[in-house]
From TrEMBL:
Xref: Pfam families: TNP-like_RNaseH_N
Protein name, per record: Transposable element P transposase
Species per Swiss-Prot/TrEMBL record: Trichonephila clavipes (Golden silk orbweaver)
Domain annotation Transposable element P transposase-like RNase H: ranges: 50-171
Length: 307
């Protein structure tokens, strides 16, 4: 029962407080539960040791169905605010590869291919960057350990970062960049490497916004004839003009095109939903229907680029 209370307190402190105040159950004070939860030895520092590596998944694997265990391993790096904290008798925030506080963390998550199941299996806090060799060792260890506890890892998904590519290339001998490698648990089986399409999608939009030329123009070849010159022009300022034209209209052709999508902050640039507000059929229709009427610059080629 105490385990259930710990989970509830961790997920929703407000729900725990509401349940306690209802009087139906005699449960500990939230302050007591926080002390119990923070004293559990489940922090990224202790997880680096061999005896604690994937300790949580070793227990959870026993209650999962077989359809949950055919998975892909997703890898991503998140940036952290660098500081140390003292909780539950432990110093938290230390890096895996340094005696200083971590500046980022590599997060390993598994996603089932046959069910909705997904779970974070490992977090590795690091100081600055680690090289491809060290990352390869951790990725390989994670895959082998997951296979050892009953999971079947089909592939790895990550962004197009050079360190990730270097790490994945080491699964082949000699190292080479490929979409398929020998599986570390059984070389007769394939291990697929997939670059995250969402990351590529965001990068296209971000590179377009970051163009420093007049009109924030992005130049691209004709998709039907790559040898055709000159290059076509996608004009980002044209989208801003389209937004201004329709900003006061109740009914809009470019439905969903917002100021936040056109001028995102650095944090908002990570939101793929804002990317989809630009790359959609409504914006294409708006450019095609209003472009000639309002003489928008390069509206035809901009709509081709978005399509």
């Amino acid at each position: 029962m105490m385990g259930l209370f710990c989970i509830l307190q961790s997920i929703s402190p407000h729900a725990y407080k509401f349940l306690r105040n209802s009087g139906y159950l005699n449960i500990p004070h939230p302050r007591t539960m926080r002390k119990i939860c923070t004293s559990l030895k489940t922090n990224p520092q202790t997880e680096q040791s061999n005896e604690n590596f994937l300790a949580y998944m070793k227990k959870k694997g026993n209650i999962l169905k077989s359809v949950d265990k055919t998975v892909i391993l997703m890898l991503d790096e998140i940036h952290l605010k660098s500081y140390l904290d003292f909780k539950g008798g432990n110093i938290l925030g230390m890096a895996y590869n340094s005696e200083q506080a971590a500046t980022s963390a590599y997060v390993f998550m598994i996603q089932s291919l046959l069910s909705p199941f997904k779970e974070v299996v490992h977090i590795m806090p690091v100081k600055k960057k680690i090289d491809g060799e060290k990352l390869f060792a951790v990725v390989k260890k994670t895959i082998v350990e997951l296979d050892g506890i009953g999971f079947k890892v089909i592939g790895v998904v990550s962004d197009n970062n050079s360190i990730n590519r270097k790490a994945m290339s080491n699964f082949s001998f000699p190292p080479k960049l490929s979409i398929v490698h020998p599986h570390p648990s059984d070389s007769s089986n394939p291990l697929f490497f997939v670059i995250d399409s969402v990351h590529i999608f965001r990068c296209i939009r971000n590179n377009w916004i970051n163009q420093k030329n007049a009109g924030q123009c992005f130049y691209f070849p004709d998709f039907e004839d790559h040898n055709k010159f000159p290059l076509l022009e996608a004009n980002f300022s044209t989208l801003k003009q389209l937004y201004d034209i329709e900003s006061n209209n109740l009914v809009k052709f470019a439905y969903g095109l917002t100021l936040k999508a056109l001028c995102p902050t650095n944090l908002e640039k990570q939101n793929v939903k804002l990317v989809l507000k630009i790359f959609n059929n409504f914006v294409i229709q708006g450019l095609q229907l209003l472009g000639e009427q309002h003489k928008l610059i390069s509206y035809e080629t901009t709509s081709i680029f978005i399509s």
